[in-house]
Amino acid sequence: MTSQLRAAPGAGRRRRIAARTRLDFWFDAALLAAYTLAYSYGFTGIGIHEWLGLGIGLALLIHLTLHWDWVIRTTGRLLRPRGPDKLIWLVNLALLIAMTLCVLSGILISRVALPYLGINLTRIGPFWSRAHTLTAEVTLGLVPVHVALRWRWIVRIGRRLLTSPRAGRSR
Amino acid sequence: MKFLRQLAEVTLVVAVVVVAGLAWARFGASTLGGGPRGPGKVVTVSGKLLKGLPPGTEVAVRPGPHGPVIVSEGSGGGMNLGLDSMFQAVNLPVLRHTLEIEAGVIAAVVILDIARRRLRRFLRARRRQAGGSVD
Question: Which residues contact B110 (CB under 8 A, 6 or more apart)?
Fold first, then answer.
């Protein structure tokens, strides 16, 4: 999840935030906001819920791809006795499974988005409705944990990004 | 190029989870018993029940954390983004409830993380003092 914070040579305290770090921060923030809205089904209504869910499904592929190096690196270090990020790796794995099943079940029980795209799935039993509810509730527990386990990175980058350059110079 | 290769690997992993999910539905569907929260009861509004919703609109009444929640289900034809129910003030507690859960879990994890780091620092300092090492 974390990206390199590259310092411009000789920049001292005023370090430049790499474009990739900016992308990670804002992309993940947008993903969290979209997830929060999509989970609040009663607030958004079924249309936005379904379209957001489909969008989140695609965005998750990109999110995972952007952090795939971390996944490979951490998976390789799992067997070390004091390998770092084991808890985060486990939470992320559980979240990957829950989120994938949530999006999958959401697609299968879709009543607005898929019919609009001309896809009408028949013979979908109640299993997928229950699976959707269950996995959605699991993700609601795991998403904040996933975010909070990186809270230092979020606070560090957020503070730099949200502080205006003028305020940064005045310090 | 690297991004596309990694995207392909990610898609493969996701496909494995999808296949596992389909296998679960095929062979272990009975493991998922019916809970108290079903898909909700869908009713068709005959008159003008809700502000902003035309007659004939299907709405779902779902159990929510703060009482029943009314969700716009669309009126059949065309693409309906369901914006109507977004403007029902009665549904705002649903969003607030989600935010409260997220904020609560984040706060708990952050507090635990800070406590864990402080404890580790304290134990390290005590070990150093007991061992009489430098510092």
Answer: A148, A151
Chain B residue with the nearest C-alpha to that of A59: B7
The interface predicted TM-score (ipTM) is 0.82
Which of B94-117 are b and which e, b meaning 16 or more Cβ less than 10 Å from the residue's Cβ?
bbebbeebbeebbeebbeeeeeee
Distance CA A85, CA A91 (A): 10
Asked if A143 has any chain B CB less than 8 Å from its own CB, the reply is: yes
pLDDT for A94-142, tens place per residue?
Answer: 999 999 999 999 999 998 888 888 888 777 778 999 999 999 999 999 9
In the block, tokens 């996701």 appear at B14
Residue A151 in contact with partner chain B when CB distance is under 8 A:
yes
A94 touches chain B (CB under 8 A): no
Within 13 Å of residue B124, how many CA atoms lie on the same side as its CB?
A: 8
Looking up tokens 């808890």 gives A87
